[in-house]
Design brief:
Largest sheet: none
Number of strands: 0
Number of domains: 1
Radius of gyration: 19 Å
Helix content: over 70%
Length: 75
């Protein structure tokens, strides 16, 4: 069983690393360190995007399951 805390921590760390790398690549080395509010905004945006995608996947899987069960439930 995967520890969800360590998974979430690893994902958050990845979002942070990716945000820093993207900002520094776009704006110049050290820009992210000088602008932590920009890093925070990018990490938040990444987390929201991940949550939305997770919801889409769950919704799709739920819909597929319901369609498979429909003949059993309604004949």
């Amino acid at each position: 069983m995967t520890d969800t805390r360590s998974t979430a921590s690893a994902r958050a760390a990845r979002h942070l690393e990716d945000a820093i790398a993207a900002i520094d690549a776009a704006m110049g080395q050290g820009y992210a360190a000088a602008h932590p509010e920009l890093v925070a905004a990018m990490v938040q945006a990444s987390a929201i995007e991940h949550a939305v995608e997770t919801g889409r996947i769950a919704s799709r899987e739920t819909n597929e399951t319901l369609l498979k069960l429909k003949p059993r439930l309604f004949g």
